[in-house]
Amino acid sequence: MQNISHPTVKISSYAHPAESVIMANASSIPLLTKLPKLKSSDQSWLTIHQQFASYGRNAKEWTRKCILLLPEIEKQQIWRKKRFHNIYDYAAKLAGMSRPQVDEALRVLRRISNKPALLKLLEEKGLQRVRPIAAIATIEDQNFWAEKGRSMSKNTLEVYVQNYRREILPREASQSVNLQNLPFEPEEASISQATAHSARHGGQLLQSTSRLSSTLTSSNLQSAIALPSTSPKITLILQLNPQVADQLQKIKGQSDWNETIDELLKLRREKLEQTKPEVVENASRPISVAIENYVLAKTNCTCAFPGCYKPYEILHHTDRFAMYHIHDPDKIFPLCEAHERLAHLGLIENEDFEPQFWKIRTYPDYDDPRYEIDQLVSKFR
Q1: CA–CA distance, 188 with 210 (Å, rounded to integer)
Q2: Nearest 5°: CA angle at 87, between 86 and 92?
Q3: Could you tell me if 376 and 329 are in contact, meaning their C-beta atoms sit under 8 angstroms apart?
Q4: Partner residues linked to 49 by β-bridges
């Protein structure tokens, strides 16, 4: 009988803390990974899942550590010293990183190299959590953005940054001008201005929100923040049937398009108001079909937050259901997931008014009774 020689194998220690890899001494290519022993009980699938999830968490941690080393590897050209073709070849073979991942990592790390708070966030949460804030964060407000990166998901953080750029940065730039239009006393205006400045630079929020909101009603709020005469006009390009376009032109006549569309919107609101269901008190959690249909009709199943046109995902109670157990059709609004999360982080201002007046804020109103409820909600997510 012919003797068949088998290649010898050796078990070598691997960088991954959760497993060992059996290596063939001839080619040094991994042949087999140590697998968990399957159990015959019903819990075997859970064991496999838990181990897989643990390995995945460890893999993400090591990837984050590799990313943090890339700038120094590039600077010292360590890849060249180890005889790799380039840094992409080096990162791919040693860490399994693709070329776009390396480029993105280096780009983000260049932006945050002088911001230790964001470097720590990257190490804790990964590149995708830092990427949305890398371009907007400054040395002064890096702690502010690091806190936002820890408390928000990637999707919510991206939406918050978009709204922050559109609302808060221009608001701060014209703060001194806009304060002259607000319906409260000069000393209150100076408090509000100091609050905005403090929030921008990572300071503590001054507790002026309650004072300001108590002076605002629905009517003077509109005059204070809508500012139609100074708001920039937006151009819309519509593709309409010739008959519809002709009718719109006739309805407009010699008037302004803003007036015409506003009148049409007013008629639509009045028509919807005729179908508004009654408020349901002492309610159970499910919202009735009548209230749901009414609420969704107001935005045609689109997120109610200004400037957001994503499909709605959640019906949000501005008067928190956990506090009142009431389904009020005037206090329920459809939101996308990101804006619903921001609402429960206390970062939407003017929630007691119609969505057209909603704005992003830098810090929650810690005196608002909703804040405590929102904290409890966040713990279960």
Answers
A1: 11
A2: 105
A3: no
A4: none
Tokens of 281: 């008190």
CB 330 within 8 A of CB 351: no
Report d(CA 262, CA 260) in Å as an integer.
5
Per-residue pLDDT reduced to its tens digit, 170-204: 877 665 444 445 444 444 443 344 344 444 444 43
E-strand spans in the chain?
9-12, 21-24, 30-33, 314-317, 332-335, 348-349, 359-360
Domain ranges of the chain: 1-36, 49-154, 275-381
The strand pairing partners of 143, in sequence order, are: none
Cα–Cα separations (whole angstroms), residue 225 to 167, 181, 187, 306, 349: 12, 8, 19, 13, 12
With the C-alpha atoms ordered 163, 164, 169, 172, is the resulting torsion angle positive or negative?
positive
Check if the beta carbon of residue 47 is closer than 8 Å to that of residue 54: no
CA distance readout (Å), 222 to 115, 210, 282: 39, 18, 33
pTM of the model: 0.71
